[in-house]
Design brief:
148 residues; alpha/beta; Nucleotidyltransferase, domain 5; two-stranded antiparallel sheet; 30% helix
Length: 148
């Protein structure tokens, strides 16, 4: 004969809270690790030229970004630099980085061509052979260049 145990009014039903809390903590940690924090990028006073073949490319970690505004003022990582300081920075980067060295130049569309060539020649002098020019999509409105 089997006996059945009947629940009485005195016995309280318990909800297993510890496993539920463990699951919630795991979910919270997962979302904290998997989300990326928004990174704000400083803007330069540069109006990029339009291009019909412009594509959005991810910015690489070791990419050196040089900005040149319409007046010929140079920027390195969002900060104003002189030609001498840019020269020294390129020299130090060239010596510290073996192999292919990459540079992206963000030049204002109204910048005289000779100023752009001067920056390109300075990069080539220190061994930077992979030089890219940043443009904007012709279908999008003009926006300021941003530094990673």
């Amino acid at each position: 004969m089997s006996r059945r145990r009947s629940h009485t009014e005195d016995e309280a039903f318990e909800l297993p809270l510890i496993p539920m809390i463990d699951c919630m903590l795991v979910i919270i940690i997962y979302f904290l690790v998997s989300t990326t924090m928004k990174h704000t990028e400083p803007e330069l006073p540069i109006d990029l030229p339009p291009s019909g073949a412009s594509v959005e490319a991810p910015v690489e970690e070791d990419l050196l970004v040089i900005g040149v505004d319409a007046q010929g003022q140079r920027y390195l990582n969002g900060e104003v630099v002189t030609t001498a300081l840019l020269h020294e920075t390129l020299k130090a980067r060239a010596q510290a980085t073996p192999g292919e060295k990459k540079v992206r130049i963000d030049a204002d569309q109204s910048l005289p061509y000779r100023d752009l060539v001067e920056v390109i020649e300075l990069c080539q002098f220190w061994g930077f052979r992979s030089i890219g020019l940043h443009t904007r999509d012709a279908g999008k409105p003009a926006k300021r260049a941003s530094i990673p």
